[in-house]
Structures are given as C-alpha cells and as structure tokens.
Amino acid sequence: MKKLFLATAVAVLALVPSLAFACETHQQASMEPKKVTVTELASLTKEKKAVPVDANNKELRQNEGVVPGAILLTSSSQYDLKELPKEKDAKLVFYCASEKCGASHAAANKAMEAGYTNVSVMPEGIKGWKKAGQPTSKPNS
C-alpha cells in the first residue's frame, strides 16, 4: 500500500510543476514586493517620485503619526482599490508599524494582484521612520 501511495505521489508531483507555472497570475501573485529603506522613501517623497501608502490602523496612526503625504488605507487587506492612484505604474511604497508587522506586505500584495507594477514596502515602518528622525504628520482620519 505504501509503495502504491508513493508511486502515485511521485507521478502527481512530476505533473505539478508544469501546471503551477502555466498560470502567469499565480506567478505574479507569489512575487514579493521590492524593499525600500527609510532614507530611500524620504528621498523619493521629497522628489515626488513615490506615493507612501499607510497600512496601519487608526489607533496606531493617532499614536505614531504618518509619513507626510501618505495615502491612508481603510484596511491593510480589505481596502477598496479606488483608494490607490488610478495609474497602475505609480510608484507605491507601503508601510505599517515596524519590521514585526505584516500589514504593509498584505496591502502591497493586494495591489500587485490588482495589476500595480511598481510596488514596494518599507519594512522599518512608521517606527523606523521616526527613529531615523524623519518628520511625521497627524492623520486626517
């Protein structure tokens, strides 16, 4: 019985790679967003070459502030795509609280799955932004 199961499993696994890579959407969804440092985001926003996107909740925004000019998502995973710029090639840099938080990755992945092509995350988050001495603003929401 074990040999039959093993033979079947090997046969199925031999077919799976070709099936898994037949779908471009699957490959695109599994892509990781690029990483941007605090210094890089500060420079990009100063030059108006990127849009910061805040994936934090309201309470954290009130306590820590936000990157000036950031889009404030209603949710890191349930936000409406209309909250993002219409241009699918806009440079978007998602951030959340810190490297211990995964909200920025969830939000960035949703944008990539929707066809946004220039998506990054700033893993240090708002706490790393502040630690580096960068300015914050009070959230409007």
Radius of gyration: 19 Å
The poorly predicted ranges are 4-29
Average of per-residue pLDDT values:
85
Q: Estimate the global geometry from the Cα principal axes.
A: globular
Largest sheet: 5 strands, parallel
Strand content: 5-15%
Number of strands: 5
What structural category characterises the helix and strand content? alpha/beta
- Give the proportion of residues in helices: 40-55%
Q: How many H/I helices?
A: 6
Write structural notes for this entry.
- There is one protein chain.
- 42% of the residues lie in helices and 11% in strands.
- The chain has 141 residues and is of the alpha/beta class.
- The longest helix has 19 residues, at 2-20.
- Strand 2, helix 4 (58-64) and strand 3 (71-72) form a beta-alpha-beta unit.
- A five-stranded parallel beta sheet has the order 1-5-4-2-3, sandwiched between helices.
Topology:
Layout: H1 2-20, H2 24-29, E1 34-35, H3 38-46, E2 51-54, H4 58-64, E3 71-72, E4 92-95, H5 103-113, E5 119-121, H6 125-131
Parallel strand pairs: 1-5, 2-3, 2-4, 4-5
Summary of the model, kept short:
It contains six helices and five strands, in the order H-H-E-H-E-H-E-E-H-E-H. With 141 residues, it is of the alpha/beta class.
Jot down its keywords.
single chain; 141 residues; alpha/beta; five-stranded parallel β-sheet; 6 helices; 5 strands
